[in-house]
Each structure stands twice: as C-alpha cells, then as structure tokens.
C-alpha cells in the first residue's frame, strides 16, 4: 500500500495583507509519517510539499499562489500512484488550498482514499466531510490515528478509529458538534519526525532565498522544534486546545537531546526555533533544555517565535538564555490593560512581571519581540490605544519589537463562539482579521488606529536603525544579503489594509 502525505501550496495575499511566505518542513506530516513507518505496517510512505519550488503564480480566482500550481500538484501526486493521500492543513486561512487539492486528487484518482488533518478540520470535521472528495478526517494529533486508519485499510476492515471520522459517522454527528478526542499521554513514545522523507537542504535553500520558517531569520539552517504539547491556560483567542488540548505534555530531556543532536550532527542545523505553545510552563524543564543548548559547540542559535509567557522569567533565566545562544525571545503580552487581560483575554498575566522581563532583556542585551492583539469584543477604542501606546513606547525605549495584530477569531476558540453568539460579525462568518463590530467600535475605527500604529512603528524602526549601532548593522546586513526579501517584507508591512 502506498501512502502519500501532502502539504498543499499556499495563498500569499490574505485579505489585503500580503505575507512573505514563511516555509519550514511540514512537521505534522513528518511526525505522522515517522509513526506510520515505525509501526512496521507493510506500506510505503512518501511526503510531498507543494511549497518547495517557491514559484509564484496567479490562479483563476486572481490569488497569488506560492509553490506548485494545483495542476502541477495533482500531476505530481498522480505520478506517485498512491492508495491513500493524506493532506495537511495548518491554517484556517489556507483551508481552501487543502480542499481544492483534495477535490482535484479525487477527480484524477477516484479510487484513492483522501484523508485530511490539522487544526481547522479538527474543529469543523462536518465541513470537510461534506465535500465529496474527502473520505476521512483525522482529528487532533494524527500519529496513532492515521496509523490505525492505514492498518484498517491494509487488513481490509472498515475503519473504526477513535478520533477519525468518515462519511458514515458524520451523518450521526449533530451539526456543529465534534466528537471528543483523546490526546497522546506520553509524547516521548513518538518517533522523531521522519526528516529523511523530505530534502531538508531544499528548505535551507528557501531560507537563503528569503523564505525562512520565521520572520527575518533568513539564511539560517533553521529548524522548527516542539518540546511540548498543550497548554493549561485558557486564553480566549487561542486555538491550540482544539488540536493539542489543555494538559501539558512534554518530551523528556533525553528525547530532546536525541532530537537536537540529530538535527545538528546529521543535517548541520545551526538555529532552532522553539515553537512550543508554552515552552516555559515548567521552568525547570525549560532550564534543562536550555542548559543542554549551552553545552553545544559550536553554539546553536535559538529563539521562541511562537511566544512565551511573560511571567516565567527571572533575571538569572534571562541571563542564561542570552549566554546559551538565544537570539531573541518573543513575549505574548496581548494587552497592556489589566481589565482586558483578566476579564476578556483570561490570560492571568501580571504586567509587572512583563515589565521585569523587558528590563532584564534590555540589561543583558537580549532582543525581545512582543505579541499584542487589539479588537476584542468588550474592549474599548481607548483600551486599544493604551495597548498601542505601550507597544510603541517599549519599542522606542527598550527595543521591544511589537507584533501587534487585530483579532482573528480562530475557529474552536471561546472568542469565536462569543462573537457568533452575540452577532458581532458584521456581515458573514469569516475567520480573518478585524471583522468584529460591537457597541464600542467598528472595523473601520480599528483599522484607522491600526494604520496610525503602523506608521509610528515604522518611524521608530527608522529612528532605532539610525541611532542604535546594533540595529544599524543588523538591518544593514539583511539589506545587503537579502535585498529582495527586505523590499518585499517592507512593502507588505506598509500595504496591510485590514
Ligand atoms: C510554526 C507555526 C507557524 C509558522 C509555520 C512555518 C512552517 N512550518 O511552514 C508560520 C510563522 C508561517 C505561521 C503562520 C501563521 N500561523 Co501558525 N503556527 C505555528 C505553530 C506554532 C507550530 C506548527 C507546528 O509545526 N506544529 C506541530 C505539529 C506537530 O502540529 P500540527 O501541524 O498541528 O500537526 C498535527 C495534527 O494537526 C495532525 N495533522 C496535521 N496535518 C495532518 C495531516 C494528516 C493527513 C493527518 C492524518 C494528521 C495531520 O497530526 C499532527 C501530529 O500530531 C502552530 C501551533 C502549534 N502548536 O501547532 C501555529 C498555528 C498552526 N498557527 C496559527 C495561525 C493562526 C497562524 C497565522 C494565521 C497567524 C497570523 N495571524 O498571521 C499564520 C498563517 C500563515 C499562512 N501561511 O497563511 C494557528 C492555526 C489555527 C487555525 N485554525 O488557523 C496555530 C494552531 C496557533 C494557535 N495557537 O492558534 N505559523
Ligand atoms: S495563548 Fe499561550 S498561554 Fe494562552 S492558552 Fe494559548 S498557548 Fe496557553
């Protein structure tokens, strides 16, 4: 039996915001593939990532597409002659790419079983199964479930796997209800991602061309690593619980050493993005991993681009992060207004702790980025402005680079449910930026203050580049080495229109 796991191409222009594609190996698929292979089932596993050729085209809807076109993707899939095609979708904003691929695969290969997985379909399995092309949806973590699904096909049984839904089950699912699923209790039991099934050097090459897995980290042989899954906090905008749950499950230090050693020695990785949702939830465990990073020679740079909490830091911990090769931390602040943080976001974060972290990072010259969100239902325009002022002030004074976004109500989140319940979506239900209208604000008002923020941010960026030696040389190096990527990123930042 031949199994082909696919990552579709991606849209580049999203609701008026053009993003520079950020591409890393499809970690979810590599984990699913690794588990299937380790099961010893008699099947051949292949991985196809449609993004790797890095070509831009325009499709019939006028959308800019990055990677193989849909037709090229189908031709590639046909050549593999798969019995099962597994499609991954990481983002709701890209779901139509996955659905389109499923449709074209089914048309071209009607006997092939089409399976889909990832965060969006985990929340909306009915939506996916309503499409004739999709046979099964794997909910949540795919490693065990996909292996069991394949086992059933190999053994000629009708699949009945916990967390996998097919056409027959969907009929019995009440609309908008998804089955409850279990999470893998011991993630150390999982094999390492099957990196050998993709050409990692092709991804390093993409990073050299300005398509790194993360913003501005161009040119590195960087890899995305996850040391834990799930988060016990209950931030109302965060969608991670739908796929990974509330229980914090983590890899042991031994597992992480094995993983990091493989990446460094076998693939020459020189930079690690720790993409955990809550890397520092157990600070002592984080200390152990970072302690190991500091023993590596040559030093391996690292960062936390997915954000860490602002209340798990001590002065000593920041100092050690810097010494161990950390290039920057990203702190998830969300709002500078305690009422919004406590009553709307449910972040349970004391801003005083964040202020300490900012000061310590400044003291040890460790770059700090910060996430903020404005536009929550219940928030006022004044409160949004307070967050904007805070973000710009900490950028100007301490160099804390702000990544401030207007709310995207992600499916499966409490905020999405609240917005639906109270009718805060202006027109139709969409999962894009700045769609909410309440008694306190309209999307137009939010857009206005957001655009003012962007210009002020740009001015501070220019000022800092001219007055900070470090920023000047850092930015000069990027412009000199990656002129195209810099122009593209700058143009996109300025043209954001939502
Ligand atoms: C790294 C990352 C990125 C990187 C991706 C770089 C890359 N690798 O190419 C970048 C920076 C580009 C990014 C961008 C965005 N991201 Co992001 N990102 C992540 C992050 C932190 C890690 C992804 C990852 O590798 N996970 C690890 C693997 C193991 O998990 P997984 O992919 O979900 O796969 C598992 C299951 O889903 C399932 N599965 C997945 N696919 C398949 C397929 C089959 C066939 C099967 C059987 C199973 C299966 O099995 C896997 C193993 O258990 C996740 C959070 C998270 N913890 O997952 C957010 C996350 C995916 N991102 C999210 C969002 C919202 C975004 C943005 C929209 C943010 C923004 N405002 O711009 C953009 C979208 C960009 C775009 N392309 O359109 C949300 C998605 C929610 C949603 N419903 O859309 C997440 C879940 C974060 C969150 N807490 O809400 N992101
Ligand atoms: S935003 Fe961070 S702290 Fe909050 S629930 Fe999500 S992962 Fe946990």
Automatic annotation (TrEMBL):
Specify whether Transport is a keyword of the entry. no
Q: Which UniProt keywords apply?
A: 4Fe-4S, Iron, Iron-sulfur, Metal-binding, Methyltransferase, S-adenosyl-L-methionine, Transferase
Among the GO molecular function terms of this UniProt record, one is: 4 iron, 4 sulfur cluster binding
Q: Which organism is it from?
A: Caldimonas brevitalea
Report the CDD domains cross-referenced here. Answer: Radical_SAM, radical_SAM_B12_BD
Q: Which residues form the Radical SAM core domain?
A: 217-439
Alphabetized Pfam families for the sequence: B12-binding, Radical_SAM
> Is Methyltransferase among this UniProt entry's keywords?
yes
Q: What GO cellular component is one of the record's annotations?
A: cytosol
Per the UniProt record, the lineage of the source organism begins with: Bacteria, Pseudomonadati, Pseudomonadota, Betaproteobacteria, Burkholderiales
Q: Which residues form the B12-binding domain?
A: 9-160
**Name listed for the protein in its UniProt record:** Uncharacterized protein
The cofactors it requires, by name, are: [4Fe-4S] cluster
């Amino acid at each position: 039996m031949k199994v082909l796991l696919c990552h579709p191409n991606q849209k580049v222009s999203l609701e008026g915001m053009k993003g520079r594609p950020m591409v890393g190996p499809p970690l979810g698929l590599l984990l699913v593939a690794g588990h299937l292979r380790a099961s010893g089932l008699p099947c051949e596993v292949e991985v196809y990532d449609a993004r790797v050729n890095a070509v831009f085209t325009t499709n019939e809807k006028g959308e800019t597409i990055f990677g193989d076109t849909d037709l090229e993707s189908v031709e590639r899939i046909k050549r593999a002659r798969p019995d099962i095609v597994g499609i991954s979708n990481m983002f709701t904003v890209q779901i139509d790419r996955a659905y389109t691929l499923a449709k074209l695969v089914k048309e071209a290969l009607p006997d092939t079983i089409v399976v889909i997985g990832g965060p969006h379909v985990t929340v909306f399995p009915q939506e996916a199964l309503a499409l004739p092309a999709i046979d099964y949806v794997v909910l949540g973590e795919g490693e065990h479930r996909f292996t069991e699904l394949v086992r059933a096909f190999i053994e000629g049984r009708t699949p009945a796997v916990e967390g996998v839904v097919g056409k027959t089950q969907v009929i019995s699912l009440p609309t908008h209800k998804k089955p409850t699923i279990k999470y893998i209790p011991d993630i150390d039991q999982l094999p390492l991602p099957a990196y050998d099934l993709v050409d990692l050097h092709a991804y390093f090459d993409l990073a050299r061309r300005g398509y790194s897995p993360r913003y501005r980290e161009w040119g590195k042989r960087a890899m995305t690593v996850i040391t834990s899954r799930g988060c016990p906090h209950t931030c109302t905008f965060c969608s991670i619980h739908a796929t990974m749950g509330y229980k914090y499950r983590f890899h042991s230090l031994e597992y992480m050493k094995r993983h990091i050693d493989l990446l460094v020695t076998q693939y020459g990785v020189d930079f690690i993005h720790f993409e955990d949702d809550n890397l520092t939830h157990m600070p002592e465990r984080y200390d152990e991993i970072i302690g190991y990073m500091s023993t590596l020679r040559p030093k391996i740079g690292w960062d936390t681009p997915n954000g860490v909490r602002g209340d798990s830091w001590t002065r000593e911990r920041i100092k050690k992060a810097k010494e161990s090769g950390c290039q920057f931390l990203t702190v998830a602040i969300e709002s500078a207004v305690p009422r919004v943080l406590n009553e709307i976001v449910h972040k349970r974060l004391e801003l005083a702790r964040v202020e300490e972290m900012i000061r310590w990072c400044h003291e040890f010259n460790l770059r700090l980025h910060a996430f903020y969100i404005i536009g929550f239902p219940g928030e006022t325009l004044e409160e949004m402005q307070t967050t904007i002022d805070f973000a710009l002030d900490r950028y100007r004074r301490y160099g804390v680079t702000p990544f401030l976004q207007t709310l995207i109500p992600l499916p499966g989140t409490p905020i999405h449910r609240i917005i639906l319940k109270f009718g805060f979506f202006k027109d139709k239900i969409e999962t894009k930026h700045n769609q909410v209208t309440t008694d306190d604000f309209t999307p137009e008002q939010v857009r206005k203050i957001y655009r003012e923020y962007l210009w002020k941010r740009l001015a501070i960026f220019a000022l800092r580049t001219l007055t900070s030696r470090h920023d000047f040389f850092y930015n000069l190096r990027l412009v000199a080495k990656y002129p195209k990527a810099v122009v593209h990123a700058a143009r996109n930042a300025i043209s954001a229109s939502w």
